[in-house]
Amino acid sequence: MAVRLSPPHPHDVRIAVGGLLGGLLLWGLGLSPRPSGSSLVLWSPYWAVLVPLVVTAACELLRRTRPRLGLVIGTAALVADTITMGNVVTIVLFTDLMYAAVLYGTPAAARRLPWVTGLLTVIGGVVPAALWRDPEGLLIGVGVGVVALAPASTGWVVRNHRDAAEAARLRAEQTALLAEVDRSQAVTAERARMARELHDMVANHLSAIAIHSTAALSIDDPSTSREALSVIRENSVEGLAEMRRLIGILRDGGDDHEPSAVPTLDGLAALVEGARANGLDVHLDTDHGTVPAPVELAAYRIVQESLTNALKHASPGRVTVALAQRDGSLAVAVTSPFGDRDGPRAPGSGAGLVGMRERVALLSGTFEAGPADDPVAPDGKIWVVRATLPLTGGDPA
User: Fold this and answer.
1) How many C-beta neighbours within 10 Å does residue 241 have?
2) Of 35-49, 170-184, 291-305, which range is least confident?
3) What are phi and psi of 47, to 5 degrees?
């Protein structure tokens, strides 16, 4: 199968052309490291110098795309140059091929070449000096070191710096990506928290307004209409106050003074009284001590949403709200009559159960809601909402 070579990099083309022209200039001026009559010149034709020069310059076109192949051919060309009068540019181009082989080659080649060239440098200096018994033999090792070891070592250093810079860039990108993910998750969590708060704070009042306005429109009785309008006004005022509190928190989140206090379990009695004013027969039974603020808020919202659902969906009958603290947790249970109805008294989106489940999950508690059998209930069934909130839970927001 034929090997398809990638087109050379523009910089490599410039290096090849510049090296070739420089070598031709030295050849034309007759500047060579070895005179034609030297015993070291085994290939004496005047044009012989051009063959290694042209081959080495051509190898420069491979310095990025096929660095190992370029180095192998360049090494052969350098050997051929040593038996001619020689050209300094050929040697300079070879050093660049060695440098490029380490810098652009495979990681294995980049690790091996400095060691191989270092070993050749030692051998090239020690062996001739030992054979000839002349210290000048060490100069051969020096020449090998300058031509091979120095560029290989330089390429290794540059490659390490380049890899370190690339690793730092990737770490920076990863850090930025993780920061963006954290920011998106924080925004999503905040939006979910505000959605729960908005639903829990306003849905109860709006449901009562919808139910009593329907009664006022359908029943032609002045006293009933007046009573319904009173309930509507009361829920409108309370809902508006809750909305103002929420808007104030959104606008002044960084202020130490919130518009009003966060609901606590001490407010359950008032919440139950409001549900009774809306027409529910609610019985409240609480047996708990001091609980953490996050658990307190979650329990309050669960009771509030359960009463809202009872107002919209429950059959006539008693609604019970029970809170009990035991075994390091707060148990919340709300039951209401459950039976066949033509439809809810007020429209709903189903977000209430989702919000309650989310609040309990954030506190690592347990939650269940659904119908259950009860022989005492009018239709034999009740709707039960149960939540167990660990007192070591975190912030439900």
Assistant:
1) 14
2) 35-49
3) -80, -10
The CATH architecture of the domain made up of 265-397 is 2-Layer Sandwich (3.30)
Three-state SS sequence of 266-283: HHHHHHHHHHHHCCCEEE
| 3 class by beta-carbon count within 10 Å (0-12 exposed, 13-18 middle, 19+ buried) | exposed
Are the C-beta atoms of 183 and 189 separated by less than 8 Å? no
305, 332 in Cβ contact below 8 A?
no
Cβ neighbourhood burial of 132 (10 Å; 0-12, 13-18, 19+) = exposed
**DSSP code, position 391:** T
Interatomic CA distance for residues 194 and 341, integer angstroms: 32
pTM for the structure as a whole = 0.52
Query: Each residue of 303-327: pLDDT tens digit?
Result: 988 888 888 777 788 899 999 998 8
Do you know the residue count of the chain?
A: 397
In SS3 terms, 293-355 reads as HHHHHHHHHHHHHHHHHHHHHCCCCEEEEEEEEECCEEEEEEEEECCCCCCCCCCCCCHHHHH
Per-domain residue ranges for the chain?
10-174, 265-397
Interatomic CA distance for residues 113 and 98, integer angstroms: 8
pLDDT per residue as tens digits for the range 89-129: 999 999 999 999 999 999 999 999 999 999 998 998 888 77
* pLDDT value for 341: 58
